[in-house]
Amino acid sequence: TEAHVAAVEAARPLNAFITETPEKALAMAEASDKRRAAGEAGLLEGLPIGMKDLFCTEGVLTTAGSHILDGFHPTYESTVSGNLWNAGAVMLGKTNLDEFAMGSSNMTSFYGGVENPWRRAGDNRPLVPGGSSGGSASAVAARCALGATGTDTGGSIRQPAAFCGIVGMKPTYGRCSRWGVVAFASSLDQPGPMARTVQDTAIMLRAMASYDPKDSTSVDAPVPNYEAAMTGDIRGMKIGIPKEYRLDGMPDEIEALWQQGIKWLEEAGAETVEISLPHTHYALPTYYIIAPAEASSNLARYDGVRYGLREPGESLDEMYEATRGKGFGAEVKRRVLIGTYVLSAGYYDAYYNKARRVRSLIARDFAQAYESVDAILTPTAPSPAFGLGDKMDDPIAMYLNDVFTVPASLAGLPGISIPAGLSKDGLPLGLQVLGKAFDEETLFKVAGALE
Ligand code: GLN
Questions:
Q1: Does residue 132 have a cis bond before it (omega within 30 degrees)?
Q2: Among 157, 94, 159, residue whose Cα is nearest residue 128
Q3: CB 107 near ligand 1, within 6 Å
Q4: Is 238 a catalytic residue?
Q5: Ligand 1 and 185: CB distance under 6 A
Q6: Is position 94 annotated as part of the catalytic site?
Q7: What CATH number matches the domain at 2-229, 3.40.190.150, 3.40.50.300, 3.90.1280.10, 3.90.1300.10?
Q8: 132 catalytic, yes or no?
Q9: Residue 192: is its pLDDT beyond 90?
Q10: Cα 392 from Cα 409, distance rounded (Å)
Q11: Which atom of ligand 1 is nearest to the CA of 291?
């Protein structure tokens, strides 16, 4: 823990942490030593981790990367963070993120952008770590933490993992409790682990997951020993290669990575088959209707009365306006505007209801594919990490980065991103394995064999 606390301090220029909690870490490590001495070691005993600052942590500032949560010290602990502490993990601090987890670059945080520890070969210009769990990904890649939590609504665990050359797993919706996690889009949000190896994420997920009656969408299913599923034996498994993910204009290096992944699977004895997920093309627009709709509703609670920031006004309405005007950043405001628009009486059917129907079709595509394959292999993102500040004036270009991650999110299915190669200028690239609902074991098995 001491070494990791020092590493967090040394890596401050990355801005991966919003709040460092060194005293707490050392106290937790001491308590952990005592448990270990008493022969009571938990699954993650004494392992220092970063906690995405979207998880409420009792008595520790929780910001969601937003100005509007100024000074918010929760009086309770999220279920997932509580599970991790119960397993013996040690908190190094709260990691930076896009404001309310909205973004793919970690540039929308009120607390400033995060830097990716990687650089292009021969080029020292800083790059984004991806987002929204960019602080977690950067911290793990920079060896500040052994693991970190993320949340994935449309790719926020998998894409930053790919950009930073680490492993990130988005479990099935309902596997990890959302209780105490600041809500973005409730029908999509899902906590998950980020770490250096597939095995580490497998161990971490086992500690994070639990049935939680406090989250009505938590699923009461046994939590398997994911690590034990990693036998390395994928002989005879069938892996689908969805043809709709072969995008026009996709960079050659991404296509080459994908082909390499297919080759590795075949060499390990799996069979790969081309499959069709016909509604893939509609996933991105569908996601960017549903996610902002839910966000606009979830963010209505930040009114200057109950939490954080309050800006004075002459009347209640003026106080709301001033608080929300000042407290939310540009991307959050954009989403609230889109969300309230698509939910408004005149447009509800045309946009929100239509999107919900398309979402069912996307889920059906996957269900049909999984009748004949065990898992699916795709690239995680259409490009490696881009420059710090790039795409900030072009939200559509930013949204396009999520093209490979949002379909599984809409279908509630699990996915894992693993580092699988380097781009031509030396940046990490990720491959994504998608699986059936509550079959994370198969994902760990396949990802482990690819690693
Ligand atoms: N990049 C996507 C968005 O901006 C996904 C974010 C997430 O998964 N939290 O909404």
A1: yes
A2: 159
A3: no
A4: no
A5: no
A6: no
A7: 3.90.1300.10
A8: yes
A9: yes
A10: 24
A11: 10
Alpha carbon of 373 to ligand 1 centroid (Å) = 28
Cα 19 to chain centroid, rounded: 19
DSSP secondary structure of 31-69? HHHHHHHTT---TTTT-EEEEETTB-BTTB---TT-GGG
| Cα(130) to centroid(ligand 1), Å | 10
Tell me, using a 6 A CB cutoff, whether residue 339 lines ligand 1: no
Token pair for residue 445? 């098995």
Ligand 1 pocket, mutate which of 52, 104, 386 (most atoms under 8 A from CB): 104
> In the beta sheet, which residues pair with residue 379?
431
User: Alpha-carbon distance 311 to 45, whole Å?
Assistant: 43
Note the pLDDT tens digit of each residue in 246-301. Answer: 988 889 999 999 999 999 999 999 999 999 999 999 999 999 999 999 999 999 99
- Residue-range domain boundaries for the chain: 2-229
Spacing, Cα 156 to ligand 1 middle (Å): 5
0.95 exceeded by pTM: yes
The span from the CA of 125 to the CA of 103, in Å, is 21
152 Cα nearest atom in ligand 1 = 8
Query: What does the radius of gyration of the chain's CA atoms come to, in whole angstroms?
Result: 21
Q: Is the CB of 83 under 6 A from ligand 1?
A: no
With a 6 Å cutoff on the Cβ, whether 165 touches ligand 1 is no
Q: Is 125 exposed, middle or buried (0-12, 13-18, 19+ CB in 10 A)?
A: exposed
Q: Is the CB of 332 under 6 A from ligand 1?
A: no
Task: For residue range 373-417, list pLDDT tens digits in order.
Answer: 999 999 999 999 999 988 888 888 888 889 999 999 999 999 999
Q: Can you tell me the distance from the alpha carbon of 357 to that of 354, in angstroms, rounded to the nearest whole number?
A: 5
Q: Which of 387, 379, 420, 393 is nearest to 155 (CA)?
A: 379
Asked if 293 and 343 count as a contact pair (C-beta separation under 8 A), the reply is yes
Q: What is the separation, in whole angstroms, between the first and last Cα of the chain?
A: 27
For residues 17-43, give the mean pLDDT.
97
What percentage of the chain reaches a pLDDT higher than 70?
100
The answer to whether the CB of 99 is under 6 A from ligand 1 is no
The residue annotated as part of the active site, out of 32, 109, 132, 296, is: 132
Q: The tokens of 228 are what? A: 């034990």
Question: Counting every residue, how long is the chain?
Answer: 451
Q: How confident is the model over 410-449, as pLDDT tens digits?
A: 999 999 999 999 999 999 999 999 999 999 999 999 999 9
Sign of the torsion formed by the C-alpha atoms of 189, 398, 71 and 318: negative
Mutate to test the pocket of ligand 1, among 66, 105, 132 (most ligand atoms within 8 A of CB): 132
